[in-house]
Amino acid sequence: MPHMFTLSLALAVALAGAPKASAPKKTLLKIEVRPASAIVYVDGKRKGTGAKAMSLPVEPGRHTIRIVQGRDEHQEVVSVKKGETTNWSWTFEDDRKAGQPSVPEPEASSPPKETSPPDAGK
Fold this sequence. Notes:
Blueprint: H1 2-17, E1 28-34, E2 39-42, E3 45-49, E4 54-57, E5 61-69, E6 72-80, E7 85-91
Parallel strand pairs: 1-7
Antiparallel strand pairs: 1-4, 2-3, 2-5, 5-6
């Protein structure tokens, strides 16, 4: 029996010291989107939101990324090469001018107009 243990131990040591074949590099698509509430779709499948960056394993080739934020959306096709990480980002920006309110405020300086009924003065 001592020979069996010695043989097993020698085999374990030999295997542990053997050079390992390096794992093939993953093909990844790293996506960063703003604002956090934007929804991310890759090849038509929902993958998450812009709340955090995502690193998705994908097949090499072309992939369609679609980002939806409320009524706005952006779509783009990206090419990913085998064994590489492709970085892609998008930020929805506010088209309004700085300081412009989202809803126009009524003018406070002009008094309300008086209107007379349509049949007044007849």
